Every structure is written in C-alpha cells, then in structure tokens.
C-alpha cells in the first residue's frame, strides 16, 4: 500500500515538473547585449541548476548566477561584434543545452523606424528583403515587418492576410510562392528575413505578428512559432515584437519573459500594460495626440515608446518635439532630414 502511494506521488510530481516545463516556454537570458559591462545577464524562465559554460570558456564564465565576459571576451566582442556562448544546465530538473548570440551593442541611436522597410523612395516592394536592406543602408534604428502564418505553418512576411488574391492561411507556402513579389523577389519567409537582418548590427528588427480570425489557438501557435524561430536562430538581441492582438503578446511573454513587446491597438493606458508585463506601446499618432499624458506615463515608467505611422512633416515634428525614442514612418529619409535640421528636437 505504502509503495503504491510513493509511486503515485512520484508519478504526480513528474507530471507537475513536465507541466511546468511546458508552461515556462524557452530558456533565455535577461539580456543579450554588451554595453561596456562584463556582466551580461541571468538565465530566466525556469529553475536552473548546474549551469556550465561549454565551448567558449575563453570568453565567458558563469558567476553568481550571471553570464560574464572575460577580459579577453570583452576585447573580442568589440572587434567581432558578436560572440556565441553555449550553456549546459538542468532546467526544472531536465538537462538542456542552449547557444546564445551576444552582441556588442552598436545599434543606431536615432528614432527612425522604417515601416515595412524603406521601400517608398526606392520604389521597391514593402516588406521585401530589398526594403530591409535599404533601411539598414539608411542607418535606421529599426525596420518593421509583418508576419503571417500559412496553412502548413510557415511563417512568411507580408502585410495583408492575402497574397496575390490567395488567403495566406488557406494555402501552403509552396502554393503561395509560385507568385513573386512585385520587385521579383521570392515571397520571403521569416527565417530568410531574420537571417538577412542578422548580417548587420545597426538596425533592430521589429517583428509584427499579425492577428488571425481562425481562433485563439492559431493565434497562440503563430506567436510560439515566431519566438521559437527567433531563439533557434539566436536573433534575440536584434528582435522586438509588436502586435494588435494582446493575447499574442501575452503568449510571446510566456515563451520568453525577457522579450521586448509593444502593443499596437491603442486602447490600453501605459499603466494597464505594465500590470500585464507588457513593457512597450506603439500606438497610432492620433492616440498620443489625444492622450498626451500617456507619453509622460510611458517615459516615467521607462517603457518602449513608439508611434505609427507618421508620414507628414507636421506630425513628424510633433513627435520629435515630444522626444519620442521611436517613430515609425514610410518616409525615413524625410525624418532623417528633420532630425539633422533640428538636432535639439532629437534625443
Ligand atoms: Mg506592420
């Protein structure tokens, strides 16, 4: 009888551990950027034991539950821009191994976020690899793009829910990709887009996860797949996530509590967002013009603050005057001109 109870207790404990590890999402670091301090960050999203640095111990060590760069590591990261570290650990009692890319923080410090890349002046296609490359070339602090989910669970880059008349969620990637973008590129996958963006260290990648009308499970699934891919490629240092669907952002945070997320819909105050652990807002320009106190509230709480989509000079000047750290625009060239002409309006 006693043995039976012990077996049962062991069985249920194992179930709880398994459930915990499913619920806690992915192993991650609290930070992925070197900004002059040797200590990079701690492991988050689980209970960790026996953490060991393997393979790159010349450059990193583990101390007081933190990943730390050696002196040599600090020199190397400045010359190479990025270093890979591999960690071995027990997480929630299970053995895991994970590689992380740590970047020298050389991201541009201007306010310019290119909306769907920088495509307009170049007369190329929005959300194309060429538009991303142009945003990088201009030196934009960030380049935004839109992620949809195909019938066969491929993540692809496109703004609308349709591509050349086909509903993206009702077709497989191969069926969609028979049509090229209007600039002749192949319909980009999120994988190709991230890999392209990770070839440089100045422009951050702003990933918009589009909502779906196919129910909450499909929405959660596209959020999970997106975060999994970002982790698989080691793109965490480049990426922040935005969405109109609040549940998608909550799912992203469940997968990776250190992820930078910004809500787009404009119907929650900064304080309401913070209560849910959403640390950024990226609202339509009219929302901020109606609720100027939200700008103050967001800044006081050191939240990520962004505005969309500001294209005319008058409104660009308004958001520069309000010292917005990020301004999303179809006119990145114009915004750069305005910043140059009145540097006091910029940060
Ligand atoms: Mg978008």
Name given to the CATH homologous superfamily of the largest domain: Phosphatidylinositol (PI) phosphodiesterase
Helix % is 25-40%
How many DSSP E strands? 20
| Rg from Cα | 22 Å
Describe it.
It is a single chain. With 347 residues, the chain is α/β, with parallel strands linked by helices. The chain has two domains: 22-104, Immunoglobulin-like, CATH 2.60.40; 112-345, Alpha-Beta Barrel (TIM Barrel), CATH 3.20.20.190. It is 35% helix and 26% strand. The chain has twelve helices and 20 strands. It has helices at residues 2-23, 71-80, 129-138, 173-176, 190-197, 216-233, 246-255, 270-275, 285-290, 292-300, 313-321, 332-341; strands spanning 28-29, 33-34, 39-41, 43-44, 48-54, 60-63, 66-69, 82-91, 94-104, 112-114, 142-149, 155-157, 162-163, 166-167, 204-209, 239-243, 261-263, 280-284, 304-308, 327-329. The strands form six sheets. Strands 10, 11, 12, 15, 16, 17 and 20 form a seven-stranded mixed β-sheet that branches. Strands 2-9-8-5 form a four-stranded mixed β-sheet. A hairpin with a 2-residue loop joins β13 (162-163) and β14. α5 (190-197) packs parallel to α6, α6 crosses α7 and α11 packs across α12 (332-341). The longest helix is centred in the N-terminal third of the chain and has 22 residues, at 2-23. It starts with a helix and ends in a 6-residue tail after the last helix. Residues 5-22 have low confidence and may be disordered. Magnesium ion binds at residues 144, 146, 208.
